[in-house]
Every structure is written in structure tokens, then in C-alpha cells.
């Protein structure tokens, strides 16, 4: 999130707004008072996290609640391995907070700048065919409803609301704390290898089901996939972290510094993109190391981009990927950012992109100074044809009518929304589009 002269913008520079009022509550009581005050004046109110969504899901034209000061651990239940975090806690803070208790997250994505409430509310996920998204780790939460009441939801209290509230798009209330079911801290062995693209696509279903965490990237204009396989190991296993210098060269100099320059050059001279992509796939993705899980999951990304990601029935991924590849070749587009392919286990959260089905993900990106609209719209047509569900925090063109058809519990979620926010205190333009009025 950046705010300059009252202007709030998303990290990808896709949305901007000047809120009428910005409040920075540092306590749960202060959040409750802010919502009650908005009710009295008839204003809309939205909580914002780190601004890492590409959609307008957190845009707050009325009252913007910046929860940056509402962070840290509220409670630890060591016997059950559960930790209650205040909503503004950033994912990158969790290793330091959890380490003293010997705990870790069951799974993580590759970006950790988001807040815990923002990441779970938008459906952030990592990869791993047997592991769910971040919201599946929630066993309880507390939120301030649209009427200003404090409501706790867990397996025993208001349990019927949990499948809706875990991944609520910010439409049900302002989350003030979240209780996560953690696991004992662990190591990950990462094996990153360039492999022939066709063979990688053909083995995707087997490897997604058989490996702990498998994903691959494909730079358009090449025939090579950059694969990453992470295997879970106990803390007693031998650590073999990347040398500091080698990690800096791979993750900072090449992946950020050089890549930023090429992306910028490619906007003016697209012809440089294919040869650079072929060079990039030769220079990256060939290493084997073992480290604490967060250091393996997370990649530092400083090159700004825009992203659209679709969740498909997992068995549809190979065919859909092939169609996207053929589309790029047919249109003659010069695409500098790789396509990312991941997976997740089925879950029971009503608006989860993995609700009720084993899921695969295909994500497309463009440099933020390029116009992504034609590319994303054409890819979206392919994804919709395969019953795809868009990531709530990433760019897409879907509306409530089309989304209802792919989410069996869509109307059940709307009923919970009617109950917790009858006056649409938390509504904005994006939520009107994807949920309806």
C-alpha cells in the first residue's frame, strides 16, 4: 500500500482512491467505534491490508480503516498448536512470531507482504495437491459486523458461519483477529530444475498429486519449464541453505534487477523479449537446497506486474495450458512474464476457488507498464470454458451472474451477507460487481 497526498494505490498500480476519511485503529474497540461512527453518518467503510490485491476489493471511497497498528499475537494455545493473530499482522512477520513456539504455517504462498486478514479474505494460496489455501487453516475469527457488533466465529460458536467467514471478501465485516491451526515447524528441500515443457505438462497431474509441493513456470517463446518441487522434512534434518551470495545473484540481481530492466525495455522494443526469455530459462531454475519452510516458500518480488489467475478442475489444467500456449503463438504476442501453474486440495469454504474440487491454477502476468487487457481477456475465455474460477484478488472480468454458476454455495454466502451487513456498510464497486447489490 502507498498513500501519497491522500491517494491510496494498490501495489500493482491497478486501483487508486482518495478516501474521504482514513482511520488507523490500534485496538479492537477502536475498530468497532469506527464502524459504528460510519453507521451513524451513513458512510461506507472498508478495511485495507497491504494493497497486494490487483482488483478493487479493498478500495474505500468512504472511510478507510488502515489496520497496520492492529498486529501481533493475541493468544497462543500450545496444546492444540493454535495461534490467534490480530488482523493487521503481515505474513512476513509470522516466522519471527511463531518460531519461539516451535510452530509454522501448514502452507504458504510465494509472496508474504500481505496482512493475514487480507490474504485469507481474498483466497491467497500456495501450491501442493494435498494442501488447501491459507483460509483453510482458520479455525476461528472475530469480526465487526455491519451493525457494529463484535461477533466471534469458531467450531463451537456460530459454527455455521465459518465456511463463509474464512474467505469473506471483506463483505461480511471487518476482521479483527484470526485463529490459525498451525503445525510443528519444518524444513523444506527445494529442487528447482529446467525440464522439457511438454513432458512437464504431461506429468503435472501425477506430480501434483504425488509431491508435497509442485509447481512450474513457463516463459513464453521457449520450450522449457522451470519446475520447483518442495519436500517437507523435520527440523532435525540437515539444513543446506543457499549461499548468501548465490541467493543474491539468483533472486535479486537476475530475478529482480536485470529482469526489471528487460521488462522496461520490452515495452518499447518487444522484439527483445523472446531472446531474453530463452536466456532467462538457461540462467535460472537449477538448484537444490534445504532451509526453514518460510525461506523456501517465499520469493522476493520487486518488479511490479499485473496478474490474473484462474482455478480449474485439476484434470483440466494440461489442456487449458496448451490452449493458452497456442493462443500466444497464434496472436504473436511478446510476453515477458512467465505463466505459473500450481495446485491445491479441495476445501469446503463457500467462496474458495478450490471449493468442492481438486484444483489446479494457471496464472498469467504482464509488466505493470504494459496493457494487459487483450491478453487477459483472451486467456479468460479459455479459463471460463473449463469452468474456471477467478482469484478474488487478481484481475478478471466476471460478475455475480456468471460466478453464481460455478459456486454451488454462492447464494448461501449472500444470505450470510444479508444477515451480517444488511445495509451494505462494507460494499464497494468491486463487491457490487462480483456479489450483486
TrEMBL record:
Keywords: Oxidoreductase. InterPro entries: ALO_C, FAD-bd_PCMH, FAD-bd_PCMH-like_sf, FAD-bd_PCMH_sub1, FAD-bd_PCMH_sub2, FAD_lactone_oxidase-like, Oxid_FAD_bind_N, Vanillyl_alc_oxidase_C-sub2. SUPFAM superfamilies: FAD-binding/transporter-associated domain-like (SSF56176). One of its GO terms (cellular component) is membrane. One of its GO terms (molecular function) is D-arabinono-1,4-lactone oxidase activity. It comes from the Bacteria. Pfam families: ALO, FAD_binding_4. Residues 15-185 form the FAD-binding PCMH-type domain. PANTHER family: D-ARABINONO-1,4-LACTONE OXIDASE (PTHR43762:SF1), L-GULONOLACTONE OXIDASE (PTHR43762). This is FAD-linked oxidoreductase. It comes from Leifsonia soli. The lineage of its organism: Bacteria, Bacillati, Actinomycetota, Actinomycetes, Micrococcales.
Amino acid at each position: 500500500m502507498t498513500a501519497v497526498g491522500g491517494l491510496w494505490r494498490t501495489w500493482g498500480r491497478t486501483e487508486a482512491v482518495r478516501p474521504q476519511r482514513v482511520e488507523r485503529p490500534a485496538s479492537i474497540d477502536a475498530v468497532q467505534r469506527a464502524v459504528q461512527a460510519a453507521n451513524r453518518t451513513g458512510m461506507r467503510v472498508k478495511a485495507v491490508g497491504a494493497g497486494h490485491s490487483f482488483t478493487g476489493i479493498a478500495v474505500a471511497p468512504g472511510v478507510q480503516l488502515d489496520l497496520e497498528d492492529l498486529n501481533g499475537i493475541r493468544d497462543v494455545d500450545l496444546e492444540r498448536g493454535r495461534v490467534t493473530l490480530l488482523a493487521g499482522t503481515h505474513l512476513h512477520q509470522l516466522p519471527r512470531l511463531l518460531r519461539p513456539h516451535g510452530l509454522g504455517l501448514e502452507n504458504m504462498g510465494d509472496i508474504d507482504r500481505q496482512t493475514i486478514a487480507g490474504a485469507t479474505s481474498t483466497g491467497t494460496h500456495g501450491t501442493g495437491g494435498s494442501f488447501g489455501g491459507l483460509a483453510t487453516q482458520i479455525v476461528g475469527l472475530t469480526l465487526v459486523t455491519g451493525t457494529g457488533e463484535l461477533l466471534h466465529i469458531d467450531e463451537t460458536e456460530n459454527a455455521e458461519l465459518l465456511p463463509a467467514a474464512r474467505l469473506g471478501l471483506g463483505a461480511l465485516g471487518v476482521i479483527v483477529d484470526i485463529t490459525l491451526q498451525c503445525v510443528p515447524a519444518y524444513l523444506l528441500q527445494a529442487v528447482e530444475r529446467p525440464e522439457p515443457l511438454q513432458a512437464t505438462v504431461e506429468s503435472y497431474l501425477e506430480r501434483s498429486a504425488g509431491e508435497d509441493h509442485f509447481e512450474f513456470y513457463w516463459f513464453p517463446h521457449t520450450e522449457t519449464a522451470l519446475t520447483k518441487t518442495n519436500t517437507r522434512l523435520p527440523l532435525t534434518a540437515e539444513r543446506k541453505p543457499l549461499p548468501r551470495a548465490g541467493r543474491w545473484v539468483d533472486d535479486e540481481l537476475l530475478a529482480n534487477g536485470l529482469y526489471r530492466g528487460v521488462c522496461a525495455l520490452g515495452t518499447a522494443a518487444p522484439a527483445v523479449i523472446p531472446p531474453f526469455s530463452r536466456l532467462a530459462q538457461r540462467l535460472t531454475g537449477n538448484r537444490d537446497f534445504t532451509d526453514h519452510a518460510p525461506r523456501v516458500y517465499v520469493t522476493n518480488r520487486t518488479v511490479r506486474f499485473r496478474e490474473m489467475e484462474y482455478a480449474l478442475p485439476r484434470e483440466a489444467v494440461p489442456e487449458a495450458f496448451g490452449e493458452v500456449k497456442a493462443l500466444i503463438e497464434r496472436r504473436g504476442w511478446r510476453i515477458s512474464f512467465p505463466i505459473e501453474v500450481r495446485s491445491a486440495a479441495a476445501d469446503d469454504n463457500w467462496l474458495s476457488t478450490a471449493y468442492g474440487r481438486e484444483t489446479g491454477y494457471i496464472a498469467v502476468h504482464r509488466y505493470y507498464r504494459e496493457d494487459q487487457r487483450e491478453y487477459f481477456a483472451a486467456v479468460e475465455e479459455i479459463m471460463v470454458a473449463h469452468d474456471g474460477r477467478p482469484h478474488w484478488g487478481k484481475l478478471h472480468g466476471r460478475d455475480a451472474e456468471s460466478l453464481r454458476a460455478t459456486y454451488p454455495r454462492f447464494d448461501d454466502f449472500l444470505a450470510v451477507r444479508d444477515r451480517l451487513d444488511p445495509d451494505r456498510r462494507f460494499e464497494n464497486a468491486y463487491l457490487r460487481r462480483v456479489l450483486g447489490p
